[in-house]
# Entry
Amino acid sequence: MKLKKLAIVLLGVCACAALPTYADDSKAEAEVSVETPVEAPEVVYQDVQVSQNVPSIEFQNPQLLQVHKEKKATGSKMTIHNNGDEDLVITKFTCEGFGYTELHNSRFINGEREMYEIKEIVVPAHGKLALTPNRMHLMVFKPERDFEIGEYLKMELDTNLGKIPVIVEVVPRRLK
# Structure
């Protein structure tokens, strides 16, 4: 029995099926096997987001401050809840629409805020951590375009528990 390969293209999805060829074409219908790729569920913005791949991690009000017209960087704010038995260690992240990113902390010296890069952000097991521009936060640089208030951007955190997607909402810049 010979096998022929038949490519089936349906709605942009390509699958291959093996169709048997019979010497006698009057045989019953040929069996067709089609494998459909499994796509990861799309992450959408919610006030509280639970990670699909690390369900013990929740993000409350993930936001990105709108980039000031004269600046080329901005920060984020959100509260991360770690309901798991292991610390969450964020070592780096990416954000759609920005050239590069850094983990940051802030301190006040003589009444002036000074920001500096840090190597990791730790959210303790069974704890939470508020990320704000006046404390630890996620900093993004070199915007590739202007972003509108209310726009949603994809962010991906690299952590000790794996990559964690987060959707952030662009909000007005209101820092004191």
